[in-house]
Amino acid sequence: MPAGDKWVDRDAGPVVRPYALTGGRTEPASGAVLDVITVIVASRRAREPDDWMELSPEHRRLLGLCRRPVTVADVASTTGLPLGVVRVLLADLITQGRITVRAPRPAGEEPSAALLKEVLHGLRAL
Amino acid sequence: MGSAPSDDPADIPFAPFKILIAGGFGVGKTTLVGAISEVRPLHTEEALTRASVGTDDLTGVGTKTTTTVAMDFGRLTMGTHLVLYLFGTPGQERFWFMWDELSFGALGAVVLADTRRLGDSFPAVDYFERRGLPFIVAINCFDGAPHYDPEDVRIALDLDPQVPAILCDARERDSVKQVLIALVEHVLASKIKNGSSAQDLANGSRAGVTAQAPPPQPS
User: Contact at 8 Å (CB) between B182 and B136?
Assistant: First the structure.
């Protein structure tokens, strides 16, 4: 194998089977990595039926799951696709303006005392 | 949509939060997650771009595949908009790339321990201590396992005095519920102790929990 010893980048195309869906890309085009519980939802534009024409079947499938707010983990779990693949595909849709990211709180910020109390209340009521 | 305040799905209130369930192999993480929530598969891969660059030889791509790691993933809706996500993560060090990501912004963690193999809990305890993520130790009482006083476990694991160590039965929903309550109480207590509660209450609206959050208190 001539290029055997070289690390191949995204230009080389698919190298690992699950990433065939992303054209071999293992990183989101935007460079931003979505947290597993980042909430995403289809944008107003993506709710127009003819907006989907140019999309790949996988992008359509993911977009269909985002009609209501969902998390990245929800999408990965429902589709059975690895998180890395889902992130790349979702980043495409975000870049295209078909999906918007809703941050309940700045990423990585500790939950507030108010949220903790609410969670406690919710758990006790289970 | 009718009576909804807005017909835009983007406005549906949704406040997700995550809790990590860590522990050694076979300690009962899947059982615990399954006792309180619907467990669904969630796969991740040892990311080529992060973990393996420079170490993985892709010469034999035909035979070599990346490692797909399955997590125990549980989802539980509480009330109208709170959604609890549980992530059961493998305890071995080579999975820490997942932990780094999962602990980011997490509410806290539960280290599930088996008294027959307490040593398996060390990496998780070490990790959360270093990371500064609040955690509790839940000792899974397996049938036939020696019954320890939680205090002995605390000493064996060299836990800080404020870290709770409690007994549980990972098969029982109510027991798991008590574990999660103990964790949230611990996180809340640490927060109040650190004097940040007033600040956080004032910032409640920023956390997206305005629906049931108390009104901001003038400080």
Answer: yes
